[in-house]
Amino acid sequence: MKLTILKDHLIESIGHVSKAISSRTTIPILTGIKIDATLSGVTLTASDTDISIQSFTASENETIKIIQLFQAGSVVLPAKFFIEIIRKLPAQLIEIEVKANFQTIIRSGSSEIQIMGLDPDEYPLLPEIEESKMLRLPSDLLKTMIKQTSYAVSTNESTPILTGVLWNITGDKLKFIACDRHRLASREVTVDNDNAQNLPNIVISGRTLNELSKILPDQNSLIDIVISDNQVLFKIHSILFYSRILDGTYPDTSKLIPQSFQTEMVVPTKELAEAIDRAYLLSREDKTNIVKMMMQEDQTIEISSSSSELGKVTEQISLQHIAGDLLKISFNSKYMLDALKVLDSEFIHIGFTGAMQPIIMKPQDSTNMLQLILPYRTTN
Amino acid sequence: MKLTILKDHLIESIGHVSKAISSRTTIPILTGIKIDATLSGVTLTASDTDISIQSFTASENETIKIIQLFQAGSVVLPAKFFIEIIRKLPAQLIEIEVKANFQTIIRSGSSEIQIMGLDPDEYPLLPEIEESKMLRLPSDLLKTMIKQTSYAVSTNESTPILTGVLWNITGDKLKFIACDRHRLASREVTVDNDNAQNLPNIVISGRTLNELSKILPDQNSLIDIVISDNQVLFKIHSILFYSRILDGTYPDTSKLIPQSFQTEMVVPTKELAEAIDRAYLLSREDKTNIVKMMMQEDQTIEISSSSSELGKVTEQISLQHIAGDLLKISFNSKYMLDALKVLDSEFIHIGFTGAMQPIIMKPQDSTNMLQLILPYRTTN
What we know:
Chains A, B: It holds the Pfam family DNA_pol3_beta. The structure is a homodimer. The first copy, chain A, is α+β, with helices and mostly antiparallel strands.
């Protein structure tokens, strides 16, 4: 293999695949980046077995020649050093040449770097995915859905299925659901009916979806999502992002969500979040994160927390609307803040069915999102 | 104590003193901030015994009333929670009221915070410093001198005196010197002779000087520096910054610096720093940081490093000038990069007296700064 490539384009491609590089090295060759050079361009591959990412740089675009190929070929280079040194090379033009035993020479300006490369044949093959089951989503919508749900996945590896986000497809509805034992987040969208036929429910790791989110472009381009038995492939322009599908059956969460409420209120989101944030500051010092909400006769709520050592925070918030019994309820303020952060609406609707029952939050004028947190059992 | 104060002004004052708050709590009251309110304004005090900082906010400035005092008094509030909650209060106007047993109520908008305060009489008194021995330096010059020397102090607490920067005053020259067992940095300036009379040599902790540097204003205002037997006081507008003077005698470093050279060269600083940085990336992987410099017949130097596992980096640099024997010398690239970073000059002069002797670096056309690093003994 021998070629020259423009530094900025190589750095961009490295940036895409770097999210899949293993830091834990059970398979030593996966600490490397695979480089494949052909006449049409250069493909970089990185994988940590859960996620594999491939990024293709074409030899030329409309305006310039990016890659000049002298000899096609492949090599695997140690990722950490390769990424750092490429970023710091002195000139735009970078020459990469692979010699005997995968010894690789990188030249740029007056720098010459020799790297011991590894045999590309030892690099694991990426899964082959049949393109029969497909779904198409706008990039920014997918990004938003990930943000609104993935924060609620379980971090406890003892029930691996709950570390993922469920993609539930019923008719033309696609619903994302994430939950741990204390909270649940769901978001639903309508998808193109032709594409959503015959699609099974799948569960994808929350961590993986967050990595995907960093690669997804902000502008509204369409992402093709191909689903196979145990892998899902996201096609993002010149990037292929492969993820493992989590094994197991996702629990039925529908029965957790009450259908009617004992108390309902409409609250200004930002005011509520800021008041809870101040109460959280104090509760955090006691390592409990417990904050109380007390509904009052005058259409206000009092948010409060107290710490035996430090003191007390008390906040008053005027409600837009309240109907039903006046409750006193305690909750984990950190969980509440996480939920409020993704409820992208000036006012939110909160429903209660009792001081020990789930708290349900939705945007004021939308039913496509739901955030649930369980209250704390406290003695007063 | 009872007053109202504008949030932005309180936050600014907190920002100044926060650098002196103890995180290690051998004296519990020092985890607090002391607040003293008088008719003229509010003084905040924080101290970690090495550093004490006092910041004064006047009741009014030319344009606005900042503080309204209802009752003078003092209190000590737990710093971490106080700082966080003040930053997050909903309104500009903050009311602070101290009740019985130093119970403190903070009100802002619809928030009310109760904090258990502590007795201000238990807070240690700041040192009283007689203003007989004084020095005056422009703020930006002091900042530069700190930057150019403090990086070289020892981090090894077994010789505490070397963790400080020596302030050596001889006639109208003030010289900062820092050194550990591998390198030395010095910077000299001419000071106003009247002020520098009768001033003893002092040693101030490098860590303290770095904290001071964060408070020093960028614009060219004059800082009064008052020196007593064991304390030094920096007066920065409305801030008083007290530092302990380190005990002990600073070693005589003058004999470390050669007076003539076997080889001298003039090198472009940025090119040298970037080449060494690339070589450092590789040497770091071997955890040695060793980089080699080889002088060549054609008025160039080769910078290189190698790692048995990863490979080799080789760099060529054209010199502006070289005279004397062609040497091959090895050094700690991290130390060299630290020194190059503060040598604020397009070209630098490097002097050598042999492969095992100190390397001396100076700006090309200035003698007021000197950076020294010791080479490595290597087998080739």
